[in-house]
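Supplementary Methods. Inverse-folding protocol.

Structures were first reduced to a discrete structure-token string of length 430. This string, shown here, constituted the complete conditioning input.
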């Protein structure tokens, strides 16, 4: 009996010791797991409280570097710009700025031109980089993409320079002609000749100012605020009537054809001006005793039918080099001929903006020696009206942008004049 009690006591003591040892081993293991290692200190530094949240809402590309120039935190925009590759900052000037700031704690800022990644284009990416210390060990780099801002500034600067030049020409001519009239006061024939020239320059100046006003309007106004269904036949007839005198002087035949009774949805004044500019250009740049055709048709598209209005001439055509730029403001294929016909270089720019603001587009097909076809594509009245109403309702309920729904783009090859077979026997208008 005493032996059994002794064995039981020994077993109990052994069990207690085993439990104590196991508990101590578990506690030791837990403590070792919680202890930071050198590698964890190097790869996972702790950002100051709130910094992660602030970086996530910044528009700028953000990169946080540690004391070894490793990337602790980088926004998706920083990766998109190619600033971070392989866990390192890939732009050497920015890396040097970060090292200098880490050394002396001063905030630095610089503008750089970086090569674009993943494109075959040679243009640079303009950025503004700002580096500041973040705590005692980290450095914050903020990079702002200035490429679009610089492009807009260049467009504005070129536009102002072009406007100044275009206005200076007729104003200077009027000044010289007025002096010539004064000097020739005793010569009635000279006065009459100079007065005629003054009228030409005054008309050119008036047209330029009016087209600048028209361009400003189509860029700033929403044409769909006063939109209405418009018969394409009426737009074509108005455009032909506008150019009837110029065409008659050059013995140019104007022919209207295509599908009748089509309707588009938009601002009548802007659409009439756009189509009138296309017909006027076709007449002005066509040789005498040739033909200008205007045809309309419907093209089925998944997002709704499109109305195509094509203006075809038999002129000398446009080179591939010029086709890429003819819709730019003040660009002229033949500057000397443009001035002779009173062209300002703004007509096609106005057409482009009118088409875009109505949810359409304008394209050109041309071959040197074979003439040109400009095609104005606009949503058909029913589809465009339904889309406009849907977007207006969406704006009222969710605040979404009404422009988001305008994306019906047909293939550009349909602007080939051979696509308009109805022009083979059109209605000829005197």
């Amino acid at each position: 009996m005493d032996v059994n009690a002794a064995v039981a006591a020994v077993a109990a003591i052994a069990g207690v010791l085993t439990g104590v040892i196991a508990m101590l081993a578990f506690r030791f293991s837990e403590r070792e797991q919680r202890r930071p290692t050198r590698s964890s200190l190097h790869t996972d530094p702790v950002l100051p409280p709130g910094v992660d949240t602030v970086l996530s809402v910044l528009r700028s590309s953000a990169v946080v570097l540690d004391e070894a120039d490793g990337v602790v935190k980088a926004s998706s925009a920083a990766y998109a710009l190619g600033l971070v590759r392989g866990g390192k900052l890939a732009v050497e000037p920015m890396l040097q700025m970060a090292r200098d700031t880490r050394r002396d704690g001063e905030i630095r800022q610089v503008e750089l031109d970086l090569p674009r990644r993943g494109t075959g284009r040679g243009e640079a990416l303009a950025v503004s980089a700002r580096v500041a210390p973040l705590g005692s060990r980290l450095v914050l780099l903020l990079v702002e993409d200035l490429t679009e801002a610089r492009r807009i500034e260049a467009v504005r600067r070129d536009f102002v320079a072009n406007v100044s030049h275009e206005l200076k020409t007729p104003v200077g001519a009027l000044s010289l002609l007025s002096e010539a009239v004064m000097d020739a006061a005793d010569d009635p024939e000279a006065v009459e000749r100079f007065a005629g020239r003054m009228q030409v320059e005054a008309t050119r100046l008036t047209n330029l100012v009016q087209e600048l006003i028209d361009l400003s309007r189509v860029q700033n106004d929403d044409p769909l605020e006063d939109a209405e269904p418009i018969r394409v036949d009426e737009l074509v007839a108005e455009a032909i009537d506008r150019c009837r005198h110029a065409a008659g002087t050059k013995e140019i035949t104007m022919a209207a054809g295509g599908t009748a009774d089509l309707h588009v949805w938009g601002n009548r004044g802007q659409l009439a001006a756009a189509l009138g500019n296309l017909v006027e250009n076709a007449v002005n740049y066509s040789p005498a005793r040739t033909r200008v055709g205007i045809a309309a048709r419907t093209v089925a598209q998944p997002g709704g039918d499109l109305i195509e209005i094509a203006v075809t001439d038999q002129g000398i055509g446009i080179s591939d080099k010029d086709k890429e730029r003819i819709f730019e403001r003040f660009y002229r294929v033949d500057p000397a001929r443009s001035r002779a016909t009173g062209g300002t270089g703004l007509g096609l720019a106005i057409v482009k903006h009118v088409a875009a603001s109505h949810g359409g587009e304008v394209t050109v097909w041309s071959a040197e020696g074979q003439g040109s076809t400009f095609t104005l594509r606009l949503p058909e009245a029913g589809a465009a009206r339904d889309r406009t109403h849907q977007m207006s309702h969406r704006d009222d309920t969710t605040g979404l942008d009404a422009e988001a729904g305008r994306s019906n783009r047909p293939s550009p090859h349909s602007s080939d004049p051979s696509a308009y077979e109805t022009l083979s026997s059109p209605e000829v208008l005197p």
